[in-house]
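I hope you will forgive my troubling you with a question about protein structure. Here, with my thanks, is the record as I have it:
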Amino acid sequence: MDERQMECLLSDYKRFSARREMLYQEISLTREQLESEKRMAELHALQPSRDPLAIRDPVPADPTAKAALLFAEGIQPLSVRELEDRLLRMEGELRANETLCRYTEILLKVLTDRELMVIDRHVIAGETYENTIRAFALRWPRDAIQSRDGMRRIKNRAIRKMLSVAKESRLPVYGLQPGPFPPGSGSDAG
């Protein structure tokens, strides 16, 4: 991983962390909806049939036996299967985003307050150097940096520090794809 890739990872961190929070909420709502659909399917299976053709059906008339038979056969309504598939996809995406976010958070912990402010405001949030300089001057008036070059030096020093920590601690090298490992990076299983 080089400095440009680290900067891209940091700029994508905001998107990944926002998506992670959204996925937590979506998964929670989907689980509730799935439980509701399962309860509705069970209640529907327990209702006795009023259809005259159902008399010739080999399904027992006893609602409890009917529900037990459907459950034993693994018959579920299409909506339940679709919700389960959606839940699995979201949980997989959450695992990938969680890995990238935790990886980035580990790297951000090694920075000083000043480096973290520059990285957070300029690289992650995408603010201009001018706004970052103003915020820096408000927070540290004695050490105010008045130029873009000063901010660039702090940013580059912070990125180099994160790269060295990643290399020294042998943290896995993550790419910028939505999944945890890019193909051919040497860290993937294939």
Remarks:
- The two ends are 20 Å apart (CA to CA).
